[in-house]
Amino acid sequence: MRNSVGAAWRGTPVQHIETSFNSLALGMLVDKIASRPPCRVLELGPAFGANVEFLSRFSSKICIEDLYQTLASLDPSFNGDQSTFCPVYEALLPYREDTRFDVILMWDLLDYLDGHNIRRLIRHLRRFCHRGTLLYALVSTRPKIPASPTHFKIVEKDKLIYQSTSTEERVCPRYRQGGLLEFLRSFRVERSYLLRNGVQEYLFEFV
User: Which domains does the chain have, with CATH numbers?
Assistant: First the structure.
């Protein structure tokens, strides 16, 4: 584990805690896309140079959205719950009808959306998937998670660094595989691994 102190924000020092871990599902995803022609990637997390550089080896186009921060900027009270905010994903993720993504990187976004919002997001994204589209997600099994999504950086094909910038926590929905498949209609579980840090890795495939 490596700790470093970041720049002050609103006058308060922010401690950035970085931890690396092996990612079996990410390694499998990379193996799959490396054997195909250049692919299109939809990155729903923030833009990190390391991730863009790594994915550019396999991708002809990378769309970066940082969806959670966009939702939070539209409504500061947004916490992923339908009762506080109902985002219109069609407006937030506008793509041409003929757009098809080969890979969707959700990271831990699912932990920060309620079931209604997950269903609505997936219903929108299905329009831009084809048979074989891969969706990578990380779902916590712990009672508590950081107050906002973790930042994930790709070190190599099967290794990630995750960075938390807050010590505040919120209740984790602790989604199980059966419930996730109810939300992610038209996707099947290609691989799933439970990591020692309490995170369940999923590689879903569109069928």
Answer: 15-169+201-206 (3.40.50)
